[in-house]
Amino acid sequence: MNLPQLHDVQIGFELPPLVLPAINRTTLALYAGASGDHNQVHIDLDFARKARQPDVFAHGMLSVAYLGRLLTAWIPQQQIRSLAVRFTGITQLGHIPTCHGKVIELFEVDGERRARLAIRCVNQYGDEKLLGEATVALT
Q1: What start and end residues bound the annotated signal peptide (predicted)?
Q2: Can you name the residues that pair with 113 across neighbouring β-strands?
Q3: Phi-psi category of 34—alpha, beta or left, where left has phi over 0 and alpha has psi -120 to 50?
Q4: Angstrom distance (rounded) from CA 30 to CA 130
């Protein structure tokens, strides 16, 4: 896919969606090891059930990392100026996360052209799991 040059980006431009593999126990174990987040609700079935969950579920920050990948597939990491999200749902085992981004504002700060994007992560049913905004430099 040919993305427009950064200087040609307009309000309404949508980043190509980032579709990830289905969440499985291996993904959760690997993320726990990499992040240092060993909260048992994400890796221990018995603990999750005691917490009244049907099974373990994905770390919220794993989905935030996926949103970061959505952005860095488009622009270099050093051009990200801000990233803010709120968790709106639980990503269960078997869910297929898909991340979306859309330019909602163009502006300038100290001579640097920037874009504000609405970003979100949903599962294969369209159920929202994360909602947020990012600001990136368009240089």
Answers
A1: none
A2: 108
A3: alpha
A4: 21
Burial 88-97 (b: 16+ CB within 10 A, else e): ebebbbebeb
To the nearest 10°, the Cα dihedral for 120, 125, 127, 131? 0
Q: Which of 99, 135, 138 is nearest to 116 (CA)?
A: 135
The answer for 44, left when phi > 0, alpha when psi is -120 to 50, beta otherwise, is beta
pLDDT in tens, 87-129: 999 999 999 999 999 999 999 999 999 999 999 999 999 999 9
Quick one: tokens of 94? Answer: 């078997």
Report residue 93 as tokens. Answer: 């085992």
**Residue 79 tokens, joined:** 């051009």
Contacts of range 37-40, beta carbons closer than 8 Å, 24 or more positions apart? 37/61
Q: Are 83 and 69 in contact (CB under 8 A)?
A: no
CA–CA distance, 71 with 127 (Å, rounded to integer): 21
